[in-house]
Amino acid sequence: MKFNIFLLLLATFLAVGSPQEIQIHPGEYLIQNIHTNKYWAKPDLAFGIPLQTEGNVVWKIFAVGKNFYIRPLSHVQLSLALLVNDKLLRLRETTPNPQNLQWIIHPSGSNVAIQSAADSKKYVNTDVYNKIDYLSQGSDAEPMWRLVHYAPKRTKLL
Question: What is the reported pTM?
Answer without folding.
Answer: 0.78
